[in-house]
User: Fold these one by one.
Assistant:
Number 1:
Amino acid sequence: MTPASSDFFDLVVARVQHEASSIAILDLQRADASGLPAWQPGAHIDVRTQDASGKEVVRQYSLCGPQGEDFWRIAVLADTRGRGGSIHLFQMVTQGQKISVRGPRNHFELPNDDRPVVLVAGGVGITPLLAMADRLHEQGRRFRLHYFARSRHSMAFLDQLMSEPYQE
C-alpha cells in the first residue's frame, strides 16, 4: 500500500486511553503488528465510523503519536454538538476491535526551512501540532507551542506537554 492509498483497510485498536474530559486516544496497528506507511507531521487518516442514526460516515483524524512505530495514534473528541461520528468512536470502540481507515494524507505540512515556528492550538487541535513540535525539536529548530482550552481538565496530552521538549 502506498501512503496516498485511496483504499480503506482494517487496523486493530491496540490501546484505548481516555484522557481529559471527553477525549479518547486510540493506538491503531495492523493485526499482524507489521509496519504501517510512513507519515509526516500534519498528516491525517480517514476513519469509518457511524453517525447518531447508525449510518456509516467517514471522519478525519490527525496522526499524533511517535513516528516510525508499528502503530498510528489518533485523538477522538466526543463532540456532543457534532453529528455522532466521534461519539460513536469515543463510546463504542474497544481494544482489539477492527476499524477501517484510509491514508495517511497530508494537507498541513510543516515547512522545511530554518525559520522559527509558532504553533497555536485549541482543544483537540493540538494533535497535528504535537508531531510538528517533535519534528522541530529533532531538527533543532526554534519553536513555540501555545495551547488553549476551556480548562486544564479538557486538555489532552497535558502531561506530555509539561515535559521536554515543550518546556523552555
Note: The mean pLDDT is 88.
Number 2:
Amino acid sequence: MQEGQGRGPTRGVAIRIVGLSKAFGDVEVLRDLTLEVQPGETFVIIGPSGCGKTVLLKQILGLLTPDAGRILIDGAPVAAPGQPKPYRIGMVFQSGALFSSLTVGENVGLWLKEHRVADDGVIERIVTEKLALVGLADKKHLFPSELSGGMRKRVAIARALATDPDLILYDEPTAELDPVMTDHIAEAIVDLKRRFRITSVVVTHDLNMGCYVADRMGMLHEGRLVEVGTPEQIRRSANPVVRAFITTQTKGMGGA
C-alpha cells in the first residue's frame, strides 16, 4: 500500500458482480452479467457504443440501481452517492467534467474543500501532489479552456486521485484524443497502477489502448460479457463477435 497526503493509505479492492441486469423501458442494456475483478487489477471492458459499458460503470459507482443482481466492492454492497462506504472510489468521466469557471487546482481540490477534509494548506499540498503525478504541477493556476484535450483528461485523473481512491473508474479516457495524447493517458493509467496498486476498471472502444493498460479484459456485446481473458487471449480469441470487433479496429473503423 502507498500513502499520499490525502485521506490515508490506498489499497486495491475486489469487485464481485453477480447476475447484473439493467433495462430502460423495453431496451435491455445489461443481461445477467457476472464478473470478478481482483484487488489491484486493471480490468478493461471493450465493446462498441451502446453495448452497456458506461451503464455498468454507473452501477459500480452507485449512480444507477440494477434491476436484478448485485455488485459487491470489498465485500460490501454498492452504496448510493453520499452514503458511507468502506472503500474510496474515484471516477474519470469521458468529457472530463471539469468546471470551466474554476482553475485546474480548484477543480482537483473541490471535493476535498467541500467536505472539509483538511485545512487549506494541506489541500493545496494534496492538489500539487496529485497534479505532479500526471505531469501537470505547473498548470495549477490555469483554467480548463487554456489546456489541450489530453491535459484536461489528466486533470480529471488528478481530481479522481485527490481522495486516494481504492478503486478508480475510467469512462472512455482517450475518447477524441490524437494518438500522442492517447499514449500519454495510457502511460498515466499504467504508472498509477504500478505506484499505488489501485484497482482500476477502464471502459473503452480503443482496443490497442485497452490491451496496453489491461491485466485482463472483457468484451461486452448486446449487454452480455461474451469473453474474458488477458489481452493476448482476447487478441487470439476464436469468438466471432470478438473477431469482428478486432477486425473493425484493425481497419481503423472503430467508432467512439
Note: The chain has two domains: 1-87+167-256, 89-163.
Number 3:
Amino acid sequence: MKTQKSVAALSQAQQEAFRQRCCEFLDEHATGISLGGETDPRGELRLRAAQKFQQALADAGLAGLTYPVEYGGAGLTKTHERIWRDTYSKYPDMTFELLISQGMCLPMVAEYGSHEQKLKYLAWMISGSEVWCQMFSEPGAGSDVAGLQTRAERDGDEWIINGQKVWTTLAHLCAYGIIIARTDPTVPKHAGISMFIVPMDASGVEVRPIHQIDGSTHFNEVFFSDVRIAAANLLGDLNDGWRMATAMLMYERVAIGSGTTGGITTDRSDRLIEEARKRGVSGDPNLRQKLMRLRTLETCLSLVAMRTRAEIKAGRTPGPGGSVGKLATVAIADLHTEVSLAIAGASGVAWEDEADACWQRQALASLSAGIAGGTTEIQRNIIGDRVLGLPRDVSVDKGVPYQDLKIGTQRN
C-alpha cells in the first residue's frame, strides 16, 4: 500500500512537529473512558465513546495514517504511524472496543478488497462511523474453524447464507461483519471455504446475546436464515477463504497481542502498583516479586508487539509469530488476576463498595484470554509447527472431501 510521502522526506523537525500535533490532540481527547457509574453489560457505552474519539481523530486528519487518501486515510508514512503509536502509548487507550473493527476487519478489506469495496467501506471504517465484527466460530467449529458448517450457495447475482456463528463480539452494534462460509463441500474442508461481507441488518440475520459469567453480554450468537447478499460481497477469491481466514486470524492475534498503542506499555502493573500502595501492602516481598514479574512480561510483550508491527509496516501480512504475543497475553492475564486478587484481599470476593466489584469481574473475564483468538493449545501448536519447525500433529481428515466427514451435525 503506497503512501503519499516517502519516509526519507520526513525531516527531524517534521517528526517533532507531528509528535507535537499528536500530543495536542491526545491532551484534549484521550482523557479516559468514564461510564459515570452506569453499568454497560452490552458494551454500548464504551463503544460509543471509542467511536467519538475515532471520529475526532479522523476530523483531525490522524486516523488511518498510512491508508491512501482516496480510501479515507491520511496518506502519511510509516514514520508518522510509529510516532503516533509511541505518543498514544503514554495516554489512556480510547479505542479498545474498536480492536476487531480497526485491527482485523479494516486491514483485511484494505489488503484483499476490490477497488470498489475499498471505496465503499474503508472511509467509514477508518472514521469509526461503521463498526465491523468477525464471524468465524461455530458451535461445532471452534479451534477447528475449517470444520464450519455455515454454507453459502450462489443464486444468480446473489449468495444465500444459512448457518450459525457464535462468540461474535459486539455483533448487535455492528453495521457489517466478515464471515467465512462453505462454498464447496466436495473438496477437503480447508479448500472449499470463501469469505464474505455481510450487512448485519440484512433480512434473515438474527443476533442473540450470550450471558457471560462476569455479568456482561457483549458476545453473541448470530443465526443466518436464507440471508441474501450481493455477489459483489465476496471478499477475495472464491474458495480462497481459508488462506484469508488464516491471515485474519494472524491480524487478530497481533491485535490482541499488541493492542492499539505502541512503545513499551506497562498499564496493568502500573495500576496494581498504585493500588498496592493505596492499600498499604506494597512492602510485601512476595507481592513485589509478582508485580515485577508482571511488569517484565508486559515489557517483553511490548517488544514482541513492536517487532510484529515493524513486519506489518514493511508490507508483510502478520505471520505465525503473532501467536507468541497472543500466548504472552494469556500469561499476563493469569498473573494479573492472581496479583490483583491478592491486593484486593477479601474485597475481591465480597464487597460493600461497588468499586471493588471490578476485581472479581476482571478475574472472571480473564478466563476468556486463553480462548479468544484461538486457544492456548492452538497457539502452541502454531508456534511449534510454523515457528520452531517441529513435526505437525497427525491429521486424520487430510485430503478427505468435507461432505464425507462426520463433523458437527453432519451425517453421511
Note: Residues 285-313 form the longest helix (29 residues).
Number 4:
Amino acid sequence: MSLPEELLRVVELTRAHNRWRRFEAINLIPSENVMSPLAEAAYMTDMMHRYAEGKPKKRYYQGLIYVDEVELLLMDLMSRLFKVKYVEPRPISGTIANAAVFRVLGKPGDKALIAPVQAGAHVSHTRFGTLGALGIEHIEMPFDQERWNVDVDKATKMIESVKPAFVTLGGSVYMFPHPTKEIAQAAHSVGVKLIHDVAHVLGLIAGGVWSNPIHEGADVITSSTHKTFPGPQGGVIMTDDEELYKEISRVIFPWFLSNHHLHRLPATAVTAVEMMVFGEEYARQIVKNSVAFAEACAEEGFKVPTEHLGFTKSHMFVIDVRNLGGGAKAATLLERANIIVNKNLLPWDPPEAVKDPSGIRLGTPEMTRLGMKEGDFKEVAKFMREVLIDGRPPEEVRKKVVEFRKNFVEVKYGFSVPEELEKELTKIPILL
C-alpha cells in the first residue's frame, strides 16, 4: 500500500527541520543544546512508553525494576556532581521544578521577591507565569543597571521591609553571578528561604566555572537539564535541607505530575557522567567563546551594553539593536540567514515591549558542543554584521553560513555509542 499523504508530509517536515537545525543553521539560543549520540540513544528506549507514579521502590505500577535503579543512579550521580545531599529528578521541566518549590514555600496571597523581568527573570518567576498561576504576587527587587545585577543594598532593605514568603534569584538573561551569599543572609534574617534558579548555568556549575548557590547559602536550586548542561529536556531540584526535600517530593507527585517521562532518566544520567569527565573543559570553553563572541560583535559595530563589565562571565550576552530596527526585526533577518537567535527585553524596556524589545540574546552552548572555538565565533559576528549593519540580503549570507556550518556537525565533550551497545540501544531516527 502507498503511504498516506499526511504521513509523507509529517516525514517531509521532520526531515527538513533536522537538516536545517542539525547541519545548516548556527544556533545561538542560550537555552538550547544537543545531546551526545550516547545520550540520544539512551533517550530513545522502551522507557518512553512506560509509566511510573511515585518514587523508586514505592511505585503504583509494576514493571519498573530497572527504571527504579536508573532513577536512583541518576540521583546519586547528580548528588556527587553538584556536591549536594538531596536530588529530585522527577520534574519534567525547569518550570515544573519552580512550581513545586514555589507551592511548598508560598501560598495564594503571599509575596515573592524576584529579579526584575526586564533584567532576566524567567517567566515562571512572575505573575505572568507560574507565580501568577499559584496566586503569589511577584515584587521585583531593585536592579543595578550599571552592574547588570541585583542591587544588594536596596534588595536587602526590601527583603527586611516586605518579609516575603521566599526570594528567587537566577534568570534567563544571566551574564553575571547573582549575589547569592548576601541575598541569602538577608532572606534568612527575616526567616524566609532563598530559591536560586540555575537552569541556564547548571553546566557551568557542573564544570566548576560558577559556584553552586547551595554552597553560598541558597536553600534550594531549581533547574532544567538541557541548556549549558547538555542533557534531554527536563527539570531537577537540589537541596541540602532534608525536610524541604521531603516536602517538595510530596508536592511533585501527585500535584504537578504523575508520570515523569522515564526516558529522560538514562539520558540525563549519561549526561551527568559526561559532565564528570568533560565538564570543566566544556564549561570553560563555553565562557571563553562567549567572551570572544561578544568582543567580536562589539568590534563589528554592535552595541554590547555589558562591554564595560568585561562583556560576560557566562554562556550568553545581549546586544542592543534599537538602532537596527529592534529585536524582532533583527532576529527575523538573522533567521533568514540561518543564524538562530531570540529577541529579548533589555532593562530599559517596559514589559509590554516583549513582542518587539530592544535586544537580541546570544549564547554559545550548542555551537561550542559542536566544536566551535573563539575564532569561529568571530566569523559568526562578521556574518551578523553583513546582515544587520551592512544590509546584505540574508539569503546571500545564508550560503556562506551553510558552508561554514559543515565544519561543525559532530558532538564534542560527550560519548558516542560504543560498538558493543549499538544493537542494544535504539538509534535516534533523524529521518535524513
Note: The domain at 280-405 is CATH 3.90.1150.10 (Aspartate Aminotransferase, domain 1).
